[in-house]
Automatic annotation (TrEMBL):
<dbReference type="Pfam" id="PF18604">
    <property type="entry name" value="PreAtp-grasp"/>
</dbReference>
<dbReference type="InterPro" id="IPR011761">
    <property type="entry name" value="ATP-grasp"/>
</dbReference>
<dbReference type="Pfam" id="PF02786">
    <property type="entry name" value="CPSase_L_D2"/>
</dbReference>
<keyword id="KW-0067">ATP-binding</keyword>
<dbReference type="InterPro" id="IPR053269">
    <property type="entry name" value="Asp-Met_ligase"/>
</dbReference>
<dbReference type="InterPro" id="IPR040754">
    <property type="entry name" value="PreAtp-grasp"/>
</dbReference>
<keyword id="KW-0547">Nucleotide-binding</keyword>
<dbReference type="InterPro" id="IPR005479">
    <property type="entry name" value="CPAse_ATP-bd"/>
</dbReference>
<dbReference type="GO" id="GO:0046872">
    <property type="term" value="F:metal ion binding"/>
</dbReference>
<protein>
    <recommendedName>
        <fullName>ATP-grasp domain-containing protein</fullName>
    </recommendedName>
</protein>
<dbReference type="GO" id="GO:0005524">
    <property type="term" value="F:ATP binding"/>
</dbReference>
<feature type="domain" description="ATP-grasp">
    <location>
        <begin position="172"/>
        <end position="382"/>
    </location>
</feature>
Amino acid sequence: MDTDSTSPNFIARLKTAALGSAEHPFVFLGNFEVEELWAADELGLPRVSAAGSTAVVNSMDEFALLLGGKGDHVVLKHAPDPDYHRYLLDLGFELPEVHVVAAPDPARNVSQDALADPALVATLAELATDGAHLLPHGASAVEEELSARTGVPLATPPAALCKSVNSKVYSRQLADELGLRQPTGWVCDTPAQLADAVPEAAKVLAEGGTVVVKEAYGVSGKGIAVVTSEQRLLRLQRMIERTAQKAGRDRIALVTETWVDKLADLNYQFTVGRDGSVRFDFVKEAITENGVHKGHRMPPRLDDAQHAVIRHAADVLGARLAEDGYYGVVGVDALVEPDGGIFPVLEINARNNMSTYQVPLQERFVPAGAVAMARHYPVRLAAPLSFARLRETLGELLFAGSGSGLLVNNFATVNAGAGLAAAGEAFAGRLYGVLIGPSAETLDELDRRITERLATLAAA
């Protein structure tokens, strides 16, 4: 396996892996939470999604702006704030050409918006003659339709294969096949398999343990039920069986697992080439809260033996995925137990990961010996916030190209909920960035001061 995650540059390496050459331009699509589309025809758990939260998620498309370079393209729901765009240029980024959809809908992701824009479809079609390829956050039937409509081929495997690899059912089965350690659990592809798993899971509960029932395509803390009593477990089983019966289907897509104690969450990434090669990109310590991603610590607090477990898992997983015809970015969630043991594969993500979008920043601004922490800050505003106002508020805490500070890598999410709020009504948003500094203590202090200053922007 090739390693050296820091050798420039990641996108050139990805192009070579996916297309055999770094010369082809990419058209980036930040269609975050593509799992929602993969799960559209699957039976899962009941869930609720707020319109404001959906709008913020769909505005995460702006992360893709920093993946591309000169000669590349990116499709966005909204044009970047001019001062934010200038800030990135001043930092030395060579940004891709931006194409903005004509009529963005907060409830649609960027790919769906692009399909609804005939003029943009025509513009993208012109790029096909230059050898451009679409690189979405993850490939679904929507991106395949956009590819067909524009003639711009996907730089990913078929959507059906991406969906299959991304399933938590696939992850469990593959880890079993490869002998990779994972929490005790049961694949539940049918109501009958669920019925077989429930008595085993009930034994865990009877001993004071906890189990989780997960949708195969759950994401960001959605599609997961934490179960601490047999009564709750049986109630979930009945609900799932009724849903399957009502739909006239004998297929579900769930896994049931024992809950394990952890010291830290991990996320690691490797890239599989069309030629079957596997390159380890990085491992980071993930910051999560109630199953929801909050950020990453770089580098992770792992010793050599723990690193070796992760690298071995990436090696064998990558080789096996290549056999299945998959190529491109692979992200894997793992965890560290309180005693230092590693569960190297909790789930496989056949798509970009939040940490993918941090790589260009690391390559440019996080030298050996420095530390970084990617995170987001919730904000609540009474009116849209300009980047100029944010810059004024953060002052010297905003990263300026060297030293310490917060490098903002998505500003669109700050104001994403503004269009859904009534006049004078406050709305929620998120500011995403990467804290950079010489030590963890520096980052903690920087984080505290940024939080304090952002609080001054809060809606009354």
